[in-house]
Amino acid sequence: MNDRINKLRDVTINLGHGGGGRAMRDLIEDVFVATFDNPALAALEDQAVFPLAELARHGDRLAFTTDSYVVDPLFFPGGDIGALAVSGTVNDLAMSGAKPLFLSCGMVIEEGLAVDTLRRVAASMQRVAIEAGVSIVTGDTKVVERGSADKLFINTAGIGIVPAGVNISARRAQVGDAVIVNGFLGDHGVAILIARQQLALQADVASDCGPLGSLVATMLGACDDIHCMRDATRGGMATVLNEFAISSDVAIHIQETAIPVREEVRGACELLGLDPLYLANEGKLIALVPARCAQRLLAAMRRHPAGTHAAIIGEVVAQPAGIVILQTEFGGQRIVDMLVGEQLPRIC
Amino acid sequence: MKYVDEFRDPDRARALTLEIHRLVERIDRTRGGLERPLQIMEVCGGHTHSIFRYGIHQMLPPEVEFVHGPGCPVCVLPMGRVDDCVALAERPEVIFTTFGDAMRVPGSRTSLLKAKADGADVRMVYSPLDALEIARANPHREVIFFGLGFETTMPSTAMTVLQAHAGHIENFSLFCNHITIIPTLKAILDSPDLRLDGFLGPGHVSMVIGTRVYRFIAEQYRRPITVAGFEPLDVLHSVFMVLRQIAEGRCEVENQYARIVPEDGNAQALSAIQQVFEPREFFEWRGLGSIEHSGVRIRDTFAAFDAERKFPVANLQFSDPQACQCGEVLKGLIKPHQCKVFGTACTPDRPLGALMVSSEGACAAHYRYARIDTSALTGRAVVRTGSAPAALRVQA
């Protein structure tokens, strides 16, 4: 490995690092191959190859997903674009019950990015990959002219294996199901808003960015028939619940007092006119599960570090189908709708 | 949250609701039965938002109804003015700055959000002072701030113009669309088909203009008014205070929001407004039409900071689509869901009428939070759209 390290002497990325020549090879070997450190990537082939028999040990279906990450700023309290790029794709796989195994990594770099920044991002990706038990086995690097991209964009695709008998889908919600969330909502959305520094606002809130594969494995151990599960990223919990209600043609009834939201996040939402139910999360999942296993599942989740503040927040009912209804802390009720566009602050 | 949760206490809400029920029974008894529900207009869009967000309307007896007033400045902005914004924003030398709410408001052709996507330099700011900063940082560009709102936002805009003037920031100007509440309330009260029994007065506006200015409502038009705060208990308490006035046969200006609103308003803010702005003869409102002296413009002293004088502004007028019944909703003649196009041709995704535009607009709030009558969750739910609501009853 050592011959690959310190080949790259440049301080900033230039167009030559995407040119396909020696500069690009130095970048790939010194930053990515050295950091991601696995034999499939080290082979430096155009693709990663893995034996089917090894995959089949984990289950009987392949799960495959992709996501692109363009977060600004690149570094924020609780995470960075690299941590996000691994945990986001790992979580998309895990929501099907799959065990995440392999990721790809496509980097689009704006010329002028500091090589050190890239090293930090790669190190962060590897840290989360180890935590999630996945390997980054193939990749691609492009460098674009200044202004053609904003610093760094990352695409990751992932492959996982769904265990036999696990069948999780947004269409499977049933009347009587319990609605479970694994912890505080809105941390990521508020952390990013504050990190952008456009608001004269300070709060001690870190992103919840993290992989959920291990929590999901624990959940599958405690409940043999999870009906629906999604991670509540853009659009927040409100969007996920609406997707479940529409896809399964049921109503979902939730209790505002049961929904875990940190004081700091509530405070920031009050000031900015935002609703925590719509804020982005990067380490939160919403699951609909049969009532019979809800309590056992909740107890198991709370014993897991990614589910310490898990809570049952509502239930699935029949009518009005396709609608999510919130019982407010004040004693009234309201519809929790899909967002029309991005959540914009109110003016008065 | 400290100092906020106290205003959302469900136990106190239950106690207040009980008092409200008792008051309504008393009014009903004294009048020998009510012919129609008592209508209370909440003037401010912030109250509309609270009512739906917390489900306050469902906690009142059926004899009390909210009528959602004109107090959402984004909603009442006429389409022609949005077109003018877009035309200004599309000028290559211009950086057009605006509050986030106004980005999505549709003009006759396009919105600021779409103009931004098409290449206009439109930037969202949280304060007009941010716009002034952008002007300082970009001396070779023209920075226009889209001034919008009632007396709530007017002082900060006025202060910004004063600062631009003092600092000789010549590349800053204001596209002024500020409106004033009193002439608008008068226009509503003068409407021949008025049915309102009382008002919840706007909280933030009153923090600036005080409460004395509402006396004409009580004295000339004989309607009770209570200036109200925005937390759910504030709103419930204010409804209680209006009903108590009705029960006791009083018509007065009461102040429920005294922790924020002084009787005389804020002298400094009023003086800044006075220095920078003067009334326009007329201002066009979406849904209400032209109202005398309901808008302000920049005084001649500060003409150099007036975008309308600095740049050509077409000032075209467009009438609302015929199918829209925004005016009738605003006057309390119909409820949002009784409009012919509510939830069908007019939705928050594709707003046709003014009140569907911003989240504080009566129809948008109604659509978003209450298009289904959830009070009957245990029994039936009624889907509310403009077309044949009865036919869409869903059995649980």
Could you explain how this protein is built, in words?
The complex is a heterodimer of chains A (about 350) and B (about 400). With about 350 residues, chain A is of the alpha+beta class. Chain A has two domains: about 1-160, 60s Ribosomal Protein L30, Chain: A (2-Layer Sandwich); about 170-335, Phosphoribosyl-aminoimidazole Synthetase, Chain A, domain 2. Helix content of chain A is about 30%, strand content about 20%. Chain A has helices at about 20-35, 40, 50-55, 80-95, 115-130, 185-195, 215-220, 235-250, 265-270, 290-300, and strands spanning about 60-70, 75, 80, 100-110, 135-145, 150-160, 180, 230, 250-255, 285-290, 310-315, 325, 335. Chain A has a seven-stranded mixed sheet. In chain A, strands 1-6-4-5 form a four-stranded mixed sheet. The longest helix of chain A has 18 residues, at about 115-130. The relative contact order of chain A is 0.15. Chain B is an alpha/beta fold. Among the domains of chain B are: about 80-180 and about 265-310, Rossmann fold; about 335-395, no CATH class. In chain B, about 35% of the residues lie in helices and about 15% in strands. Chain B has helices at about 10-30, 45-55, 80-90, 110-115, 130-135, 155-165, 180-190, 205-210, 215-220, 230-245, 265-275, 305-310, 325-330, 360-370; strands at about 40-45, 65-70, 95-100, 120-125, 140-150, 170-180, 200, 225, 255, 275-280, 280-285, 290, 295-300, 380, 395. In chain B, the strands form five sheets. Chain B has a five-stranded parallel sheet with strand order 2-1-7-8-9. A four-stranded parallel sheet of chain B has the order 4-3-5-6, with helices on both faces. A two-stranded antiparallel sheet of chain B has the order 10-13. In chain B, α2 links the parallel β1 and β2. Chain B is globular. The two termini of chain B are about 35 Å apart. Classes of the chains: A alpha+beta (about 350), B alpha/beta (about 400). The interface of A and B includes residues 266, 318 and 346 of A.
